[in-house]
Amino acid sequence: MNDLPSLGGATAIRRVGERRAVPGPKSKAIFDEEAKAMAPGLQSIALFSQIVVDHAQGCTITDVDGAEYLDFIAGIAVGSVGHGHPHYVKRLKDQLDRSTFGSFTTENRARFMNLVASLLPEGITHMQLFSGGAEAVEAAFRLAKSVTKKFEFIGFWGGFHGKSQGVIGLLGGSTRNHQGPFPPGMHHSPYANCYRCPWNLQHPSCGLACAEHLRNVIKNDTQAEIAAIIMEPMQGTAGNVIPPDDFIHAVREIATECGALLIADEILVGFGRTGKMWASDHFGLKPDVMTIGKGIGGGFPLSAVASSLERMSATPFGEPSGSSSSYGGNPLAAAAGLGAVEAILEDKLVENSARVGRVMLEALAG
User: Is 249 helix (H, G, I), strand (E, B) or coil?
Assistant: First the structure.
């Protein structure tokens, strides 16, 4: 291919030199038929392109008109092993023939849980499974309340932890407009975005003004009832913001100072996306709680909250049915998770991410 497909309604390349309108006539007809019942608010890439997928393999999507596209968005970062990975598909197909719902243990789930547990940072040993990222974050908040018996939470400018009512108060941007009032006890502080520092300072001569501001937020804006500080070790939705190491460690220290848990939201950046298994690994960060999702299921709705057994046992979170959900850890989700994580490890995708990342950074710097 000489060009990449346009997503704005112009043209797509099927083969070298062959251009097609986007969307094609079949895609447009099916999209319009769906729109008779589909509410507004779909992900923008789906609205702009209006393509209708016929099949997909690896990193390539083929629409019903026969046009091919390179999938750079991966279902908003959920497709950790690409489309149709044979091992992933086999895991799901085998499970379909055995059982498809329920919260009872399955062999696949036992293997999946122990495999993921073996990859978690030191001190984080146990998990509870859920379906989506916001659900996992809300569960992490319930866990933090159970452990600390406090009720306030602090997030950072540019953070994205979901759009459900329990977490939208920590969401930045216009999506939160007109959605209040938010749950009480939600507070924000600036993230260490050194490229766009709100104080127009330079690191490291800034003296970590963002960390000192966090201390001031705790002192002046809260009731000293902070259950947790939630932080993406690297911010994705805000524009792939990579903070300096000392900011990450300062936040860890501040959380300890005020008796709060530190939640590392690894939903977007976990499972090798940054060249290490966890973004926290780049900083040597030891969080108290982790939220994980997206890549863990290879495209299947799956997320988790992970922490120590002691914390996960705190009541009421650790009581029977205290942290469960109807779909969390269902047989299909567990099979998908097992297939995805096995493929990530077997295909050395974490190492590949680091390798490709180095090549791209060198090219961009050159």
Answer: helix
